[in-house]
């Protein structure tokens, strides 16, 4: 059975969107883009009943993934059936944690002029550092800290890489470890322009630069994908089949929820009550919670990083 249409509701500048796109580019998986605005409101998503505010929102048929963790796991499950999945290892979760840490280190590195009052207000509920009055003064220290983090990669998991084997651990082909670890560094170099900063050049981080250059560029990859309006995206989604099998309800789960109950889900690191997602519980296991919206779309949230409760 072919994989249903994949649609990314995102925008190129978003680092989390680039993480998902890196995976799709590396696996040569075609997808469509329904481009979203940089800040709220995002009527394309609310029109589908999706009130969770972060992007990317990634769809595989009628299955919706508002978090990269659940999307990447789903894609690996589907592509393994076609022998197209990326290599996995027992250390992937370590690289995933490293990648998330790099995200938080990168935020205060952004130029002070980048933080407009509108953006600071829009992102304050998600990233409190953006609301700091002294944000414009954080860059020198933050970039020095980020540079130390890059050195950890250069002298650590990239230390045995070569021209013939440039990926994490000295591998010849990219694996999930690369997807988990590279996204923020790649975002900084390609999108923000870290390459222009002193102290981050090829002479100091040759292995890091070689690593980045062996992963498709975001701008080039985007050109190969189809951009579609929300009307077409909605039509495709609602007329598609579900890509993922039912997972049932784990009766031993400590949430104590029952199938069909209306629940609320929100990110655990956001201000409570700002952008919860509501839906009918249709799936619950050790890894994720699945809710169904009134239009039949099913949203898959990972357990880690989210609060779930009966609405």
UniProtKB/TrEMBL annotation:
It comes from the Eukaryota. Residues 115-219 form the DUF7962 domain. Pfam families: DUF7962. This is DUF7962 domain-containing protein. It comes from Cladosporium halotolerans.
């Amino acid at each position: 059975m072919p994989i249903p249409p994949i649609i990314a509701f995102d925008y190129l500048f978003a680092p989390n969107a680039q993480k998902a796109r890196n995976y799709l580019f590396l696996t040569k998986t075609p997808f469509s883009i329904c481009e979203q605005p940089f800040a709220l409101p995002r009527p394309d998503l609310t029109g589908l009943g999706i009130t969770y505010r972060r992007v990317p929102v990634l769809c595989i048929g009628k299955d919706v993934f508002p978090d990269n963790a659940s999307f990447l796991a789903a894609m690996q499950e589907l592509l393994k059936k076609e022998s197209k999945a990326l290599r996995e290892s027992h250390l992937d979760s370590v690289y995933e944690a490293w990648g998330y840490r790099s995200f938080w280190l990168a935020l205060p590195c952004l130029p002070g002029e980048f933080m407009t009052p509108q953006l600071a207000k829009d992102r304050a509920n998600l990233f409190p550092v953006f609301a700091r009055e002294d944000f414009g003064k954080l860059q020198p220290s933050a970039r020095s800290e980020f540079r130390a983090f890059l050195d950890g990669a250069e002298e650590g998991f990239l230390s045995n890489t070569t021209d013939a084997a440039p990926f994490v651990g000295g591998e010849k082909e990219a694996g999930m470890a690369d997807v988990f670890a590279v996204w923020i560094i790649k975002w900084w170099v390609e999108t923000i322009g870290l390459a222009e900063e002193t102290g981050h050049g090829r002479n100091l981080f040759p292995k890091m630069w070689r690593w980045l250059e062996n992963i498709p560029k975001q701008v080039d990859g985007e050109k190969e994908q189809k951009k579609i309006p929300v009307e077409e995206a909605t039509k495709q989604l609602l007329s598609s089949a579900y890509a993922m099998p039912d997972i049932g309800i784990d009766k031993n789960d400590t949430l104590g929820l029952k199938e069909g109950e209306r629940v609320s889900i929100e990110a655990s690191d956001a201000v409570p009550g700002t952008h919860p997602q509501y839906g009918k519980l249709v799936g619950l296991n050790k890894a994720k919670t699945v809710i169904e919206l009134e239009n039949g779309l099913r949203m898959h949230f990972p357990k880690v990083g989210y609060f779930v409760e009966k609405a």
